[in-house]
Structure formats: C-alpha cells, structure tokens
Amino acid sequence: MSGLSALTRRRRRGLSLVETLVAAFMLLGGFIVTARMLHAGLRYSTNINNHLQAVRLGQRRLQEVRAWSRANHRPIGTVPLTDWSSVQGVTMTYPEFPEFHLTTNVPTRAMFTPCSLFEKVYDPINPALKRDFSETLHQLLVTVDWGGPAPVTLTTVIGAPSAVNSGPYTLTVVPAGSTGSGPQSLAHDDIVSYQAELRDGNSNLIPDIYCDWAVAGAGNGILTPQRTGPLATFQNRVVVGSTFKYLDGRSCQLQAAVRYRGVELRALSPLLSL
C-alpha cells in the first residue's frame, strides 16, 4: 500500500511540473505579445507625432512663401508673378527640427474660370479657348519628408498681391493692334480692334480679366470678342440672311464690362463713325 502511495505521489509531482512548464510558456508568450503590442503602439504614436509635426512645419513654410510673394511680387514688389525661381525646388530644414526636410514646388498648373469642369468642354474643340488665371493664380506645394512611411504634402493657391488702398479701379477701352487712337471713321468691311485695361489706384495693370462686350449706339456691326482675353474686334457690316448690310451715317461705340472684387465696371471705346 505504501508503495502505491509513493508511486501516486511521484505521478502527482510529475503532472505539477508539466503544468508549471505550460503555465511558464503561456506567461512568456503573453509577455512577448504584450511587448510587441507596446512596441507597435509606441511606433505608431511616434509616426503620428511626426506626421502632425510635418503638417505644422509644412503650414509654416506655406505662410513663409506666401509672405515672400506678397513682399516681392508685383504690383507691390518688382518680381513678376510668373517668377518663382527663389523657392522653386528649394529644400530646407529648420534648425530646431533638422530631421524634417521641406521641399517647395510651384507646378505649372492652370487655374480655370469659372471652373475646370465648365472649361473642359473646349478640349475637343480648341484647348486654347479655355479661360485660366495663368498670370494671377499659382499652386504652391510643400512636401515634408522625415524618413517616415510616406512624406506629407500640403498645397495652397497664391494670387497676385494687392497693394493697400489699391482702389478705386479704373476700366478703359484702348486701341489694339493697328487701330488708331481717338474716334474712327470706318469704310465698308473695315475692322478695328480694342482691348479693355483694368488698373488699380496706383495705375498698375491687372491681368487675367475677362470682359463682356456689346455695341452701344445707333450703329451696329459684327462684334467678335476674344474669349481668352480682354480683346474684341468690330467689322463695319451687318449680316442679313445671306447678304451684308451697311449702316452708313450712323455711329456706335464698343462697351466693355467686367466685374472685379464684387464691383461691376463699364467703359466705352472712342466713337466709331460708319
């Protein structure tokens, strides 16, 4: 009987040892999983913090470039708005964050008016007829790279700077091409060209304006506005069915209308005698 009891005690001691080993392995596995989860959480937290810091630095760089543009581009400065050589492709770092590299780019991308969807209809017809703000609006990109999973890219649009108290704005219609100044006397089928000029209170020319043209007065003719600019031509003849008619002895003017900063401006050309 005592021998059987000793054997049973030995078997019980062996089972307890196996259970202990299993429990030890389970605890070890739990510690490993927990450590890996903590490491992954720490890594994700670091990536998120770096991402947020990259966004803050990118916004800081955008504001710096915007301030540089306002101080140096026309009409306040002397640099044309098409010249971005001082910042284009430049990579820099801030001393307090040397691991973050910021690259500035100004891509050649047209900003269409009233929107790209409306202007897209001219692609199969003639892309040159699409209206854009090529001289007054530019896209700015700042890419921040710190060696993380993916760099951060921020973008904004920068327009031509406006001088303080730059109004009132003045719209005039001036001769274009070979058209002479002052009143004109037009023979049959003669063509004249005029363009609208919008200037601020400091006489600076404002580019990228689009006008609505009309013929004002008792006379009439063939008015052909240029869709992509402030230019219009007028021909001294009227189409009636399949023939032409001339309104001799009458006179008219070309009227340009433009809306700028919520204000509608109108101007007339010199008198055209038919």
Detailed description of the structure:
- The model has no long low-confidence stretch (mean pLDDT 87).
- The strands form four sheets. Strands 6, 8, 13, 14 and 15 form a five-stranded mixed β-sheet that branches. A four-stranded antiparallel β-sheet has the order 1-2-3-4, covered by helices on one side.
- It folds into two domains: 44-159, no CATH class; 170-273, Immunoglobulins (Immunoglobulin-like).
- It has helices spanning 2-72, 116-119, and strands spanning 91-94, 97-105, 137-145, 152-159, 170-175, 184-185, 191-199, 212-217, 222-225, 231-235, 238-240, 243-245, 251-260, 263-268, 272-273.
- By secondary structure, the protein is an alpha+beta fold.
- Strand 1 (91-94) and strand 2 (97-105) form a beta hairpin.
Notable characteristics:
elongated; alpha+beta; 274 residues; Immunoglobulin-like; 2 helices; four-stranded antiparallel β-sheet
Q: In a few lines, what is going on in this structure?
A:
With 274 residues, the chain is an alpha+beta fold. It has two helices and 15 strands.
Q: In percent, how much strand structure appears in the residues?
A: 25-35%
End-to-end C-alpha gap: 139 Å
Structural class: alpha+beta
| Low-confidence region ranges | none
Indicate how many domains the architecture comprises.
2
Number of helices: 2
Shape by Cα distribution: elongated
